[in-house]
Design brief:
Length: 292
């Protein structure tokens, strides 16, 4: 039976993976309550004790603005921990699947980013995640890196959907940035596609692949917020919000710079797996239907 070690089993994507990966074999979920990601010997010990066939890393330091002041911690979790996983992965001959981010790009493109496009992260979060990718490539011969974007889900810490619903219950007017373009991605869809990746490549060795995966379509954060409130109101949510106002990024300064355009091209993964992601609006509908 395939033995799968999952790091980050209580996060947005990790919780979804605990359900999907358990269908593929023996799943050993690990979360931050039992593992300190800055304790590299502990990471090594867990991998060597379990000796999994597949390691899935769904952990990350994702506080984009806070990373600008907690630089060392961001790099410890996003760059060094994946390096340790890659080294141990190579020793035992397993396969490492690692989740990365659209923030490795600077957002200056006007076309969806391909896996082969040059990276140029703007802030500590993106830089630390890119270093994590590079550390994996350098330290193991068997990996799949999956970049995704604008993730939301039912579990883990607050995300944009949860934040909008909370604000919608508290305020009559909400301002949302309209000049940052990307694609919202449902955590459940990411977990489903990781299952498909394992089913496709689980028995192969010396796999070195980088994929982009998001839901289909593009929107601004403003468009996303409007759709969230429309869906919530259809389902009878008790919201106070009456007006959603579009604003520019310059009107909402943050500690970290964000890419203005971070749409990822998903053609490669769709072709390799012979399966296409859902449109982001359809997945948002599924999110709310699951809540209802």
């Amino acid at each position: 039976m395939t033995k799968i070690l999952l790091f980050g089993s209580q996060g947005q994507v990790g919780t979804e993976l605990t359900y999907t990966l358990s269908l593929l074999g023996e799943l050993i979920p690990v979360n931050r309550q039992v593992l300190d990601l800055t304790n590299y010997q502990q990471i090594r010990d867990i991998i060597q004790q379990i000796k999994p066939n597949i390691i899935v890393n769904a952990t990350a330091y994702t506080a984009v603005d806070k990373a600008e002041s907690e630089i060392e911690l961001a790099y410890q979790i996003n760059a060094i921990a994946p390096k340790i996983m890659a080294e141990e992965n190579n020793k035992i001959g397993s396969k490492l699947i690692h989740i990365s981010t659209d923030y490795v790009f600077d957002g200056k493109s006007n076309l969806p980013y391909l896996e082969t496009d040059l990276t140029n992260p703007l802030g500590v979060y993106g830089k630390s995640k890119l270093e994590g990718e590079e550390n994996i490539r350098k330290n193991t011969d068997n990996y799949i890196i999956l970049r995704t974007s604008w993730v939301y889900g039912h579990y883990g810490k607050g995300n944009f959907v949860k934040t909008m619903i909370r604000l919608g219950k508290e305020r009559e007017q909400i301002k949302v940035v309209i000049d940052q373009i990307g694609c919202p991605t449902y955590a459940q869809d990411i977990a489903i596609f990781i299952n498909k990746i394992i089913s496709q490549f689980g028995d192969e060795n010396n796999i070195k692949k980088l994929y982009h995966f998001t839901n289909l379509g593009v929107c601004s954060w403003y468009d996303f917020a409007v759709n969230i409130f429309n869906q919530a109101q259809k389902l009878g949510y008790n919201l106070k919000v009456k007006e959603v106002l579009p604003i520019l990024t310059s009107e909402y300064p943050t500690a970290a710079k964000r890419p203005a355009y971070s749409v990822l091209n998903t053609r490669k993964i769709s072709q390799d797996l012979d399966c296409f992601p859902s449109h982001w609006q359809d997945s948002l509908n599924q999110y709310f239907m699951k809540l209802n």
